[in-house]
Specification:
This protein is an alpha/beta fold and 143 residues long. It contains four helices and five strands; from the N terminus they run βββαβαβαα. α3 crosses α4. The chain starts with a strand and ends with a helix.
Length: 143
């Protein structure tokens, strides 16, 4: 069984997937939808969940830098409810502060063009969110 990492934007949902051992997160795809039409993500997500035998969803929570919950985080918490209402899976919230910044920095170091960075940033951010969760989960098991 695998996990999905999700990075919710206003018009995109970056998706990453873990390997079966929960050690490595890899960008999978990016779903695009009309501005804030989050329900449009449910059908393609269901297809991925069924095909990949997903057991857990890890959703990035965009807290403010001072650890408060702003508008984007509230929207993400509403989306968590949509996921819970549509899938019988645990939805784990993972702090995602700076994940998109880190994704951009990785791609700049790899010398990717602006066009390629724009196309890949959401999937890579989802991968960073999921990898952070996997590393924390593995650390907790080793205690």
């Amino acid at each position: 069984m695998k996990y999905l990492g999700l990075d919710l934007g206003t018009r995109t949902l970056g998706i990453a997937i873990s390997d079966a051992t929960h050690l490595v997160a890899t960008p999978l795809t990016v779903l695009r939808f009309p501005d804030s039409a989050y329900e449009d993500t449910i059908k393609p997500l269901k297809e991925i969940i069924d095909r990949e035998h997903i057991e857990k969803l890890v959703l990035g929570l965009p807290k403010n830098m001072n650890n408060t919950i702003g508008d984007r985080a509230n929207t993400t918490l509403e989306y968590k409810k949509v996921l819970e209402d549509n899938f019988n899976l645990p939805v784990i919230m993972q702090d995602e502060r700076l994940s998109t910044v880190a994704a951009h920095n990785y791609m700049l170091e790899a010398d990717l063009s602006r066009k390629k960075r724009k196309a890949k940033v959401d999937g890579l951010a989802a991968s960073i969110i999921l990898q952070t969760y996997l590393d924390i989960e593995r650390g907790n098991k080793n205690e």
